[in-house]
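Follow-up to my post from last week.
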Amino acid sequence: MRTSAERGTRERILEVAESSLAECGYHGTRLHRIAERVGIQKASLFHYFPSKDDLYRAVLDEGLDETEQTVRQVLDGGGSPSEKIRQLLEAYVEMVAQHPDRTKILLRQSLGDAPASYHQPPDAHRVLSAVVAFVSEGQRIKEFAPIDPVALTLGVVGMVAFFFTSAPVLAPAWCGDPGNPTIVERVKEHVVEVVARCLGIGHEPTVAAAKVAIA
Amino acid sequence: MRTSAERGTRERILEVAESSLAECGYHGTRLHRIAERVGIQKASLFHYFPSKDDLYRAVLDEGLDETEQTVRQVLDGGGSPSEKIRQLLEAYVEMVAQHPDRTKILLRQSLGDAPASYHQPPDAHRVLSAVVAFVSEGQRIKEFAPIDPVALTLGVVGMVAFFFTSAPVLAPAWCGDPGNPTIVERVKEHVVEVVARCLGIGHEPTVAAAKVAIA
DNA sequence: GTCTATATAGGGATAGAC
DNA sequence: GTCTATCCCTATATAGAC
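User reply:
Got it. Predicted complex:
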């Protein structure tokens, strides 16, 4: 059983570590700086985490867990496929927007920015598969237009991640001030619109279909 | 004037450095390893590049230059907006596919993985602006459907980068073997299709338009 | 232009007092 | 649970012979 003081310090370390790992990457992160920002000595960190690797994994696991939870929660809920995919995208964008540091770390991790000893868990595969299965089912019952579901899902993940990590550097004017709620809504609307157009949701049927109907 | 031997070594260093920077990032890259793989002593590196920073910038500049060239070449060419955007996407995807290491480095760079002394040049802004201006013009003359051109461009960049950097880790089965030409064609087709649907290219007019036409 | 040897600094991690 | 002091290693970078 941990004391309340210990739990508080541990959380502050995780907070600061998340910030540093996002900004500087694993190899660029200095334990010395983390301790400094937390307000403790470097050696004290090793009381909470036996090594830099362990601290990294603790931060990473938080992010993976929340991603899976967010996706599962929507997929397991009710509603038509079209409604659910909108909910899914909005929940995902909001989650990413609320934790940009976490997203940066996950993106870095997928680029290979991790301790050499770290072998990533196949958790990401499961979440991805769940989303792909959902899209495929929607296509099978003709509610979604045909398009490669894996490519669509991967593309959306890359797109959203990019908006909240790299885009602020490339297009600061468009992104606005960091933490500005405007950009979140803008990205949300855009991503929903892109996916809707790709899956043929919310659009009038095509002329071909109209001709058949008229005939 | 450099000797041919010197030029050869310099190029080999740049090659190996690009590979290492992509795999390990700036802070994770060890000059010792680069020298080892090139087959020279670590100290010899400093004959070609005065510091690790300079080596990094040399690699990075190569990537930025080629990106700008690729984009400009298509934009300055002839053809209708719809044809040009397809050419642009295909050229871009091919460039990224041919230089995945370079793409990883650029993506890392936009995440802030660079020496503290490095202040990125605003070059990326110019290329982005050129593409956005092109899309906007296509929308003005009604050849493209309305959608936020900045968001579309940023999203495509993120999407494509993700396909060739992170996706192989997340969905190895879908991506196939590295260097497999299949994935390049698949990504190319997908990205062209997504953008086409977003910009309303190559699709029948909607029912609303058809009704007006029939009336 | 390449080498050996070394300077200098900073990193992660440990020992042990309090 | 936090500290001071320190170990040990590796990193970039330099000096100078060949």
